[in-house]
Design goal:
Layout (H helix, E strand, L loop, with lengths): L1 E4 L5 H12 L10 H10 L4 E6 L2 E10 L4 E9 L8 H16 L3 E7 L3 H9 L3 E11 L2 E9 L2
Parallel strand pairs: 4-5
Antiparallel strand pairs: 1-2, 2-3, 3-4, 5-7, 6-7
The structure holds coenzyme A.
The site of coenzyme A (COA) has 20 residues, from strand 4, helix 3 and helix 4.
Protein backbone atom coordinates (compact mmCIF):
# COMPACT_ATOMS: atom_id res chain seq x y z
CA UNK A 1 0.00 0.00 0.00
CA UNK A 2 1.27 3.46 -0.87
CA UNK A 3 0.08 6.96 0.02
CA UNK A 4 1.16 9.59 -2.48
CA UNK A 5 0.15 13.06 -3.67
CA UNK A 6 -2.85 13.32 -5.98
CA UNK A 7 -1.99 14.28 -9.55
CA UNK A 8 -4.24 15.85 -12.14
CA UNK A 9 -4.25 12.66 -14.20
CA UNK A 10 -5.72 10.76 -11.20
CA UNK A 11 -8.91 12.83 -11.16
CA UNK A 12 -10.74 10.45 -13.52
CA UNK A 13 -10.28 7.62 -11.01
CA UNK A 14 -11.26 9.88 -8.10
CA UNK A 15 -14.50 10.71 -9.93
CA UNK A 16 -15.20 6.97 -10.35
CA UNK A 17 -14.77 6.42 -6.60
CA UNK A 18 -17.06 9.39 -5.88
CA UNK A 19 -19.63 8.02 -8.36
CA UNK A 20 -19.57 4.66 -6.58
CA UNK A 21 -20.05 6.39 -3.22
CA UNK A 22 -22.89 8.50 -4.64
CA UNK A 23 -24.96 5.32 -4.90
CA UNK A 24 -24.80 5.06 -1.08
CA UNK A 25 -25.15 8.67 0.00
CA UNK A 26 -27.79 11.18 -0.98
CA UNK A 27 -25.93 14.26 0.24
CA UNK A 28 -22.78 14.27 -1.86
CA UNK A 29 -22.10 17.58 -3.52
CA UNK A 30 -18.86 16.38 -5.10
CA UNK A 31 -20.13 15.01 -8.38
CA UNK A 32 -18.65 17.90 -10.34
CA UNK A 33 -15.12 17.25 -11.57
CA UNK A 34 -14.50 21.02 -11.42
CA UNK A 35 -14.84 20.97 -7.64
CA UNK A 36 -12.12 18.34 -7.22
CA UNK A 37 -9.91 20.17 -9.74
CA UNK A 38 -10.38 23.40 -7.80
CA UNK A 39 -9.29 21.77 -4.51
CA UNK A 40 -6.23 20.28 -6.22
CA UNK A 41 -5.34 23.61 -7.85
CA UNK A 42 -5.63 25.41 -4.53
CA UNK A 43 -3.84 22.78 -2.44
CA UNK A 44 -1.61 20.51 -4.58
CA UNK A 45 0.62 19.60 -1.63
CA UNK A 46 -2.19 18.41 0.67
CA UNK A 47 -4.31 16.10 -1.52
CA UNK A 48 -3.48 12.39 -1.33
CA UNK A 49 -4.37 9.03 -2.84
CA UNK A 50 -3.95 5.49 -1.49
CA UNK A 51 -2.76 2.88 -3.96
CA UNK A 52 -2.64 -0.89 -3.77
CA UNK A 53 -0.57 -2.46 -6.55
CA UNK A 54 -0.63 0.91 -8.36
CA UNK A 55 -4.45 0.99 -8.30
CA UNK A 56 -6.04 3.98 -6.58
CA UNK A 57 -8.52 2.69 -3.98
CA UNK A 58 -9.10 5.86 -1.95
CA UNK A 59 -8.18 9.48 -1.43
CA UNK A 60 -8.11 12.34 1.07
CA UNK A 61 -8.53 15.94 -0.14
CA UNK A 62 -7.28 18.59 2.28
CA UNK A 63 -7.28 22.34 1.76
CA UNK A 64 -4.35 24.45 2.85
CA UNK A 65 -6.47 26.93 4.81
CA UNK A 66 -5.48 30.04 6.75
CA UNK A 67 -3.11 30.36 9.74
CA UNK A 68 -1.59 26.87 9.78
CA UNK A 69 -5.01 25.29 9.60
CA UNK A 70 -5.80 22.44 7.26
CA UNK A 71 -9.36 21.71 6.23
CA UNK A 72 -10.13 18.10 5.32
CA UNK A 73 -12.76 18.33 2.59
CA UNK A 74 -13.37 14.76 1.46
CA UNK A 75 -12.06 11.26 2.07
CA UNK A 76 -13.43 8.14 0.44
CA UNK A 77 -12.17 4.57 0.52
CA UNK A 78 -13.61 2.45 -2.29
CA UNK A 79 -16.33 0.21 -0.86
CA UNK A 80 -14.66 -3.17 -1.21
CA UNK A 81 -11.55 -1.94 0.66
CA UNK A 82 -13.36 -0.52 3.69
CA UNK A 83 -13.19 -1.77 7.26
CA UNK A 84 -9.67 -3.08 6.75
CA UNK A 85 -7.88 -0.27 8.54
CA UNK A 86 -6.96 1.60 5.32
CA UNK A 87 -8.96 4.76 6.18
CA UNK A 88 -7.23 4.86 9.58
CA UNK A 89 -3.79 4.51 8.04
CA UNK A 90 -4.59 7.23 5.50
CA UNK A 91 -5.89 9.79 8.01
CA UNK A 92 -3.00 9.21 10.43
CA UNK A 93 -0.35 9.35 7.72
CA UNK A 94 -1.83 12.52 6.21
CA UNK A 95 -2.01 14.12 9.68
CA UNK A 96 1.64 13.21 10.24
CA UNK A 97 2.62 14.79 6.93
CA UNK A 98 0.53 17.92 7.64
CA UNK A 99 2.23 18.32 11.01
CA UNK A 100 5.63 18.01 9.35
CA UNK A 101 4.57 20.73 6.88
CA UNK A 102 3.81 23.08 9.79
CA UNK A 103 0.04 22.77 10.15
CA UNK A 104 -1.20 22.99 13.74
CA UNK A 105 -4.86 21.98 13.39
CA UNK A 106 -7.03 19.97 11.05
CA UNK A 107 -10.74 20.71 10.65
CA UNK A 108 -13.21 18.25 9.18
CA UNK A 109 -16.94 17.91 8.92
CA UNK A 110 -19.24 15.00 8.31
CA UNK A 111 -22.95 14.26 8.24
CA UNK A 112 -24.47 13.67 11.66
CA UNK A 113 -25.92 10.46 10.20
CA UNK A 114 -22.60 9.07 8.93
CA UNK A 115 -21.80 6.72 11.82
CA UNK A 116 -18.79 5.14 10.04
CA UNK A 117 -17.23 8.55 9.48
CA UNK A 118 -17.99 9.81 13.01
CA UNK A 119 -16.39 6.69 14.58
CA UNK A 120 -13.45 6.88 12.18
CA UNK A 121 -12.76 10.53 13.13
CA UNK A 122 -13.05 9.82 16.87
CA UNK A 123 -10.79 6.78 16.59
CA UNK A 124 -8.25 8.90 14.71
CA UNK A 125 -7.89 11.50 17.46
CA UNK A 126 -10.44 14.06 16.24
CA UNK A 127 -12.84 15.64 18.70
CA UNK A 128 -16.37 16.80 18.08
CA UNK A 129 -16.66 20.56 18.36
CA UNK A 130 -20.18 21.47 17.36
CA UNK A 131 -23.24 20.59 15.35
CA UNK A 132 -23.37 22.43 12.01
CA UNK A 133 -27.09 22.97 11.66
CA UNK A 134 -28.42 22.51 8.09
CA UNK A 135 -24.83 22.24 6.81
CA UNK A 136 -25.61 20.00 3.82
CA UNK A 137 -29.20 21.05 3.28
CA UNK A 138 -32.21 21.84 5.45
CA UNK A 139 -32.48 19.17 8.14
CA UNK A 140 -29.19 17.48 7.15
CA UNK A 141 -26.79 18.64 9.81
CA UNK A 142 -23.04 18.28 9.91
CA UNK A 143 -20.64 17.70 12.76
CA UNK A 144 -17.46 19.74 13.00
CA UNK A 145 -14.32 17.89 14.13
CA UNK A 146 -10.92 19.29 15.07
CA UNK A 147 -7.59 17.64 15.69
CA UNK A 148 -4.65 19.51 17.21
CA UNK A 149 -1.47 18.30 15.59
CA UNK A 150 0.94 19.39 18.35
C1 LIG B 1 -15.24 6.67 6.66
C2 LIG B 1 -14.25 5.81 5.87
C3 LIG B 1 -13.25 6.71 5.14
C4 LIG B 1 -13.51 4.89 6.84
O1 LIG B 1 -12.55 4.14 6.11
P1 LIG B 1 -12.23 2.61 6.46
O2 LIG B 1 -11.01 2.20 5.71
O3 LIG B 1 -13.43 1.77 6.25
O4 LIG B 1 -11.93 2.75 8.02
P2 LIG B 1 -11.14 1.75 8.99
O5 LIG B 1 -11.25 0.34 8.50
O6 LIG B 1 -9.79 2.28 9.22
O7 LIG B 1 -12.03 1.89 10.31
C5 LIG B 1 -11.65 2.74 11.38
C6 LIG B 1 -12.78 2.86 12.36
O8 LIG B 1 -13.85 3.60 11.79
C7 LIG B 1 -15.10 3.11 12.31
N1 LIG B 1 -15.89 2.53 11.24
C8 LIG B 1 -15.50 2.30 9.96
N2 LIG B 1 -16.53 1.80 9.24
C9 LIG B 1 -17.58 1.71 10.08
C10 LIG B 1 -18.92 1.30 9.92
N3 LIG B 1 -19.39 0.83 8.74
N4 LIG B 1 -19.76 1.38 10.99
C11 LIG B 1 -19.32 1.85 12.17
N5 LIG B 1 -18.05 2.27 12.39
C12 LIG B 1 -17.18 2.20 11.35
C13 LIG B 1 -14.74 2.04 13.33
O9 LIG B 1 -14.58 2.66 14.58
C14 LIG B 1 -13.41 1.55 12.77
O10 LIG B 1 -12.62 0.92 13.74
P3 LIG B 1 -12.81 -0.67 14.01
O11 LIG B 1 -12.76 -1.34 12.66
O12 LIG B 1 -11.66 -1.02 14.89
O13 LIG B 1 -14.14 -0.83 14.66
C15 LIG B 1 -15.01 4.90 4.85
O14 LIG B 1 -16.06 4.26 5.52
C16 LIG B 1 -15.58 5.64 3.64
O15 LIG B 1 -14.90 5.89 2.66
N6 LIG B 1 -16.88 6.00 3.72
C17 LIG B 1 -17.57 6.67 2.60
C18 LIG B 1 -17.12 8.10 2.46
C19 LIG B 1 -17.26 8.87 3.75
O16 LIG B 1 -18.25 8.77 4.46
N7 LIG B 1 -16.22 9.70 4.04
C20 LIG B 1 -16.16 10.46 5.27
C21 LIG B 1 -16.72 11.80 5.13
S1 LIG B 1 -15.58 12.89 4.37
Amino acid sequence: MKIRLLKKKDIEKIMEIIKEWKKESSIISWDKRKKVEEVLRRSPKTCWVVEINKKIIGFRLVIDDIQNRAWARLTVISKKYRRKGIGSLLIREVDRKLKKMGFRKVYAQTSYKNIASINWHLKSGYRKVTLLRDWYKKGRHGILFIKNLD
